[in-house]
Amino acid sequence: MESLFHFIFEIVKISLLGCLYATLSVKIFSRIATHKPKSWVTKLTQKQLWWISGFIISVFLFFFMFTYWGNHGLGDSARVPIGNFKTVRQINGTSTYIEEDNGESIGIESFTVKDSKLFAELDDYTDKGTYIIWNLESDKWYFYQTKNEYLKLAKQKKYPLPDTFKDFQYHYSDYWHGWRFFLLP
After folding, report:
1. Measured between alpha carbons, how far is 24 from 2 in angstroms, rounded to an integer?
2. What is the DSSP code string of the chain?
3. What would the pLDDT profile of 66-114 be if each residue is shown by its tens digit?
4. 86-91 and 95-99 as β-strands: parallel, antiparallel, unpaired?
5. Which residue in 66, 165, 170 sits closest to 111, CA to CA?
6. 164: Cβ–Cβ under 8 A, 6 or more apart, which residues?
7. Contact 154, 160 (CB under 8 A)
């Protein structure tokens, strides 16, 4: 049900953004028409141009909403792109996880991304270890059983330390708020 309400909200937001961007495009094309009176732009009325550009922009925004860069989740699910078409996901605002290509998911508490690698502290419910490094380019996973084991490697290779890891909400806000929140669906 939450997904349906969020989807309807996104459709309304796309419609409003389409109207706003259509108005801007009419103003831009009107300026072009005054400088080039024999162009195809002058043949369209402002009303036609507004409807056509509004429709095209709305369709583009709708499809963008489902791309890797535009999909932030619907309803109680959320996602943050981290690079190389990989994402960190969260469900119900509580369970944060990463997912392998085979569909296996691993719960994480906090993470950071640097140099096409995800560095994360695993949650208490996993038996794979305490820390993980996910090479996003090669899609390889490296698990570390203890904090000391991870810290030793982190100091050798200058990896981020666990105290620099942030929770999902921090990364979600960092990526999706600001101009993306207001100008994109």
Report:
1. 33
2. -HHHHHHHHHHHHHHHHHHHHHHHHHHHHHHHHHH-TTSHHHHS-HHHHHHHHHHHHHHHHHHHTTSTTT---STTEEEEEEETTEEEEEETTTEEEEE-TTS-EEEEEEEEEETTEEEEEEPTT-SS-SEEEEETTTTEEEEESSHHHHHHHHHHHTPPPGGG-B-HHHHHHHHHSTHHHHH--
3. 999 999 988 889 999 999 999 999 998 889 999 877 778 899 999 999 9
4. antiparallel
5. 165
6. 112
7. yes
The pair of structure tokens assigned to 103 is 């569909």
Residue 37: C-alpha distances to residues 48, 92, 168 (Å): 17, 56, 53
Nearest one of 72, 98, 85, 97 to 174, comparing CA atoms: 72
**Token pair recorded at residue 52:** 């056509």
pTM for the whole thing? 0.82
Q: Give Cα 28 distance to the centre of its chain.
A: 29
Residue for token digits 């000391």?
A: 148
